Amino acid sequence: QLFTIILSSLVCSALLAQETPRYLIDNMYSADASAHVFNNKIYIYPSHDIETEVKEAKDGGHYDMKDYHVFSMDSIKGKVTDHGVVLDLAAIPWAKKQLWAPDCAYKNGRYYLYFSAKDKNDIFKIGVAVSNVPQGPFKAEKNPIKGSYSIDPTVFKDTDGSFYMYFGGISGGQLQNYRNNKPIASGTEPGKEENALGPKIAKLSNNMLEYAEEPKEVLILDKQGNPLKAGDGERRFFEGVWMHQYKGKYYLSYSTGTSHKLCYAIGDKPYGPFVFEGEFLSPVSGWTTHHSIVEIDHKWYLFYHDTKQSKVNSLRNVKVRALEYNPDGTIKKMSGQD
Ligand code: FUB
């Protein structure tokens, strides 16, 4: 009898791990979903992909988004509600184009939508817009966050109540144009044998509108304690960073870009260093994937996107699937082709 119980629980957990991913948004193309639970509801903050005349190129100009929508659900299998346009390019005084991946954070009765966009000089900066409700609409600040650059902001609330922004993205995301937070003339990635560029981290000020410190480099080490190298395209950070905590450890996850994987590294504090652990999602259809990992009703979920429906790199669809851990805290590997 014990054997039957063990066997059926093994079969059940195998089936759970294989639960088919669910596409969440069917009235538009969407990508880069940051999901959060606010007031017992699930809120999704994605990019809004659109068709464009801009030709596909390395600078990412074909990701030509012009507004943000917010979506919500009462439960993970529930109906998805589109709350409409919550922030429009025309309403962001400093931004010219390309509203890329956003995230949202809550503090003291206000919701802060963080996003990147190109300014009037075609330089990516990170902006913030504020609302009293999670579904927006959001009102943009007049200027981007002072000292911000590059793309893909995500904001993590630590157990002591501090908020940290992680950000950065190579290539179209312009991270290679900076060292130590200053623009560099060459604007190239480090050489293959040099340390890879990491995502950046900055503690946020009490009012959530500024950096409380100069952004710092996040180090990702291999198991021998050596920083990953810029030529290590299978493992090094490229873009789309996310932070979550599991059993007291800090999990830094990201896209490897050119090798199209989602990987993660584990650390003991928000600043790292983080030790590379492995890949948890193999390449999806399409060039990018960009994710968030969220605990909902004591289960963990991965929100991400692919281009199976459109077959066009810049027209993506957000999906969700269960994410599971092994007993040792590693994440069970999933196929991006499911
Ligand atoms: O959506 C535009 C960009 O593509 C994002 O900012 C990146 O993370 C990639 O998903």
UniProtKB/TrEMBL annotation:
- Keyword match RNA-binding: no
- Give the signal peptide range: 1-17
Q: Does the keyword Signal apply?
A: yes
User: Which CDD domains does the UniProt record give?
Assistant: GH43_CoXyl43_like
- Alphabetical keyword list: Carbohydrate metabolism, Glycosidase, Hydrolase, Polysaccharide degradation, Signal, Xylan degradation
GO terms of biological process kind: xylan catabolic process
Pfam family name, one: Glyco_hydro_43
- GO terms for MF: hydrolase activity, hydrolyzing O-glycosyl compounds
Domain of life of the organism encoding this protein:
Bacteria
Q: Which SUPFAM superfamilies match?
A: Arabinanase/levansucrase/invertase (SSF75005)
- List the residue(s) that the UniProt entry marks as the site Important for catalytic activity, responsible for pKa modulation of the active site Glu and correct orientation of both the proton donor and substrate: 152
What family does the Swiss-Prot or TrEMBL record give for this protein? Belongs to the glycosyl hydrolase 43 family.
Its recorded name reads Glycosyl hydrolases family 43
Task: Report the source organism.
Answer: Flavobacterium fluvii
Q: Lineage of the native species?
A: Bacteria, Pseudomonadati, Bacteroidota, Flavobacteriia, Flavobacteriales
